């Protein structure tokens, strides 16, 4: 039997084509058509975006240096939540459990899952001096990704490159931002996912795929911090603002469908664990939600002088009053600028929540910072007139493409409500050459044929922008430079590190120690036995109380800083143990953290004794 090869069809002519090694199958240099197409596509993309790539690279280097240098030293261990999320990531990596104690649905666990993924792949817990420092490494990566997403979002909202870069610098370099974005908070992770969702919602493609990713990223934000859902209406409205009426129903269904399904997995997890409803002997999702919404002690309203919310706002403004205040002020006029409206809504929603009589988390301000920076930079972009060189229209026949620059990009507002714009048809990338590649301005739709503004109005706008920028340059360096110097040089975390190291090196195994979560993981990594106890669990966890039949009298050491009276009143066993203890060694210039030895009943109040059981 003989066989014959079937001729290869030429898709262009329908006739048989030459083998792959013929001139039509291969290009000069041995490259196939697909490789050439990819190469040309990359060349086109680089030519269109090279200015933004350079600007963003410089901005990321600056932000990376400020956030990366001394990230473990400042701020110090001023909030136990950092240690809690770190300990839960440790439990995921080393124990295969969701939390280091009973998981009670206080937050979805996606945030510390991301930290655990980072520490697993980078071996961060084994590399760095403390466990919290490993989690802060993850926050460093999260922050750089957030900076890149913020720049991309600003460009998709039609901010010129210089103002997009300014938004990122404000978001990253403000002392308030450095303070919160270095700490291992779930809010930082949630902000990254919200920015990713907004970037997809503002996609110029207006495609179902962009909507799907917007829903997925918004669901990831929920899995990181459930309070992210208060931003969902603005994300949805931004997606609607950038819609194409021809596929809007399909786009909307994809966004809401993927969002609902991925968020619903959290409820499904509780159902599978038989922990959805409240019951005896187990935790429940509904019980935790009820406590978070209705039973948690309120912090009061911002309008109440002595409320916790007012005190929290005073702390934020004490670190940096400029970014937050300028952002809120800029948000009100931004409501009347269509392309900035949803950004302003995202900021003002969070600002309005501060006036309710509810609980105010310590890191609440974190999600306000990117939108405050965008409002400030966006309004400067609106005020500064767009400049078009006089010869530009002649050179390009008023309808051609002109390469944009950092200041001269044409505006690109979303499609007005009620208008349908046809999606542009582009030639395939393989048909484009670098010489004919469109620039970033080529995709700026629509290219306006702007009327010349009145000369007086133009000068007023120029003077306004110049005045604001000058005021900022005269004010911010004097206020920010000392705090950024402190951020780069101060080692406020030293007391916590030194206390953990001293205990590991000087106290033998066999002693029960109660400590905060910032030190808990360090003792675990050092292999101290029996396992340390997080001080909250001494009073609040039935499993811990079951092990310590005599309460505080079974504890040997405390490693704690000063606890507030409110905390001590809610933890009577911890308070009684501290009252019946003596300081072994303190750390920090003002004794911020102390190692205390518990004096058992009938034992002398001394550090050294030969009495058995003491």
Could you walk me through the main structural features you see in this protein, from its secondary elements to its overall organization?
With 614 residues, the protein is mostly helical. Among the domains are: 263 residues, no CATH class; 105 residues, no CATH class. Helix content is 55%, strand content 4%. The chain has a five-stranded mixed beta sheet. β3, α20 and β4 form a beta-alpha-beta unit. α8 packs antiparallel against α9. The longest helix has 36 residues. The protein is globular and about 90 Å long. It starts with 7 loop residues before the first strand and ends in a 16-residue tail after the last strand. The N terminus is likely disordered.
Report a brief summary of the structure.
By secondary structure, the protein is mainly alpha-helical. Among the domains are: 38-300, no CATH class; 494-598, no CATH class.
What average pLDDT do the residues reach?
87
List low-confidence stretches.
1-24, 392-403, 415-447
Oligomer: single chain
Radius of gyration: 29 Å
Strand order of the biggest β-sheet: 4-3-5-7-6
State which percent range the strand residues make up: under 5%
Number of helices: 24
Distance between the termini: 98 Å
Q: What general form does the structure show?
A: globular
Helix content: 40-55%
